[in-house]
C-alpha cells in the first residue's frame, strides 16, 4: 500500500516501517465499523490515526468529535459523554446532549480512555455492545450510531490486572489494535523531522522579517 498520499494529506513526517504499518492498518480498517484502540506514548500521534480512519470511512461526512477523557473531572465525565437531564445534579439548569448523542452518524475519538472511572466504563461498554446510552438523570435508553476510536498511553493489560480497567471493555475496544511507535523506535525519522521543523522556523522568521520590513517602509513614508 502506498501511504505517501495519506502522509501528505495529514502532514505526517516519517518513513519508518513501523509508522507506515500503523497508517496501513488505519486505512484498511476505515471502511468497517470496527472499534479501534490506538496505543502509544504521549506525543506519538495517536489522534491522527483517528482522523485518518474517519476521513476514509463511510462516516466522513458525519460529525467527528475528539474527547480527552483524562482532562474531564470524574464528576462530570458521564454528563460530557452521555448528556444529562435538567435538574439531574446541581447546576444542571437545562438538558444537555452528550458526545455520544452529538456524534451520531459519525466518529468519536476517546483519548486517554484508560483514565475513565470504572462507573463510566460500564456505561461505555453498554454503548459499544448495544448502541444504547442513558442520559444522567434519566431512565430512558436512547440509540446512537457512533464509531469509536479510542487511544491510550497506559499499558492496558497492566491496568486490567490492577483492576482499574474492565477486561471486557478492553477487549471490546481492542477489536483492531494500532501501535504508534515512539520516536526512539523510529530513529531514521529524526533527520526528516529536524528538517521539517527547521523549514517551519525559517518560514516564520521570513514572515516576521517581511512584516517588519513593510512596517519600516510604511513609517518612512
Protein topology:
Layout: H1 4-10, H2 17-29, E1 36-39, H3 46-55, E2 64-68, H4 77-82, H5 99-102, E3 107-111, H6 118-130, E4 132-134, E5 141-143, E6 147-152, H7 156-162, H8 167-173, E7 176-179, H9 190-220
Parallel strand pairs: 1-6, 1-7, 2-3, 3-6
Antiparallel strand pairs: 4-5
Please summarize what this structure is.
This protein has 221 residues and is an alpha/beta fold. The chain has helices at residues 4-10, 17-29, 46-55, 77-82, 99-102, 118-130, 156-162, 167-173, 190-220; strands at 36-39, 64-68, 107-111, 132-134, 141-143, 147-152, 176-179. The chain contains 9 helices and 7 strands, in the order H-H-E-H-E-H-H-E-H-E-E-E-H-H-E-H.
Keywords:
two-stranded antiparallel ribbon, globular, Rossmann fold, 2 domains, alpha/beta, 5-stranded parallel beta sheet, 221 residues, 7 strands
Explain this structure:
With 221 residues, the chain is of the alpha/beta class. It has two domains: 182 residues, Rossmann fold, CATH 3.40.50.300; 35 residues. It has nine helices and seven strands, in the order ααβαβααβαβββααβα. The strands form two sheets. Strands 2-3-6-1-7 form a five-stranded parallel β-sheet, with helices on one face. A two-stranded antiparallel sheet has the order 4-5. β4 and β5 form a beta hairpin. α2 runs parallel beside α3 and α6 crosses α8.
